[in-house]
Amino acid sequence: MNEKKIESIIKAYNIARAQNPDGWLIDCANASTLENAIELGAKARNSVGRKHSHQFRIPNIILDKFALAILAKKHIVATSADFHELISTIESCKIKGVSDLTVYDTAQRIGEYMNVYPNKIYLHRGTRNGAEILLGKIKGKYLTINQLPQAFQSQLSAAEIEDILCIYKNRLAACI
After folding, report:
1. What's the pLDDT band for 176 if we cut at 50, 70, 90?
2. Residue ranges making up the domain that contains 155
3. Residue 52 per-residue DSSP state
4. Which residue has the higher pLDDT, 1 or 15?
5. Most buried residue, 33, 74, 105, 149, by CB count within 10 Å?
6. Per-residue model confidence as pLDDT tens digits over 117-165
7. Cβ proximity of 163 and 13 under 8 Å
C-alpha cells in the first residue's frame, strides 16, 4: 500500500473541500427547525431550491414521498442518540427509487442539523468500490476507520473518508 499516494489524495480532497464546502450540509445545519432540515435533506435541496447532483435523477415526487415518510417518524429522528440510529430510521423510510446513497446523504444532512455525525464509514456503491480497491471484497454495510490504511486514521472524520473513497475511487487504484 502506497501511503504517500493516499496522503496526496487526502491533501487534494482537503484543498477541494476547503474551496467548495458542501452547501447542502451547511443549509441543513442552519435550518430553522428539524422539520425544515428533514425536508431540505430528504428532498436534496439547498436553501435556494437547487437539487444535489447525487439525487438529480430521482424524480421530485419520489423525494417528496421520502421526506413525508421521514417526517412521519420525526419523533424517532429527534431522539436518535447517534448516527447509526439516525441512518437506521432514515433507511426504514426508504421507498422504491431511493438508493443507499440517498439514504446516507439524507441522514448526513439531517445529522448536521442535530450535531450527529457518522463514526463509521457507510458503504453505498461508490464508497464500497473505493474501499474494495484498497481492501478487497467487503461484506456488510460499513467499515470502521481502523480497518483502513494508516493514512486515513489520523486526520479525517468517517464522513470525510466516505467522501474520499467515493470521489477518488479511481485514483485509489494507483495506491495498491
Report:
1. confident
2. 3-20+120-175
3. P
4. 15
5. 105
6. 999 999 999 999 999 999 999 999 999 999 999 999 878 999 999 999 9
7. yes
Q: Which of 114, 136, 157 is the last residue of a domain?
A: 114
Where a domain ends, among 95, 114, 133?
114
127 and 110 belong to one structural domain: no
Same domain as 168, residue 144:
yes
CB contact burial 109-138 (16+ within 10 A = b; e otherwise): bbbbbbebebebbbbbebbbbbbebbeeee
Residues 6+ apart with CB under 8 A from 130: 164, 165, 166, 168, 169, 172
- Indicate whether 43 and 94 sit together in one domain: yes
Beta-carbon contacts of residue 64 (< 8 Å; ≥ 6 apart): 43
Residues 102 and 34 both lie in one domain:
yes
Per-residue pLDDT tens over the stretch 55-114: 999 999 999 999 999 999 999 999 999 999 999 999 999 999 999 999 999 999 999 999
The SS3 assignment for 56 reads: coil
Domain count, the chain: 2
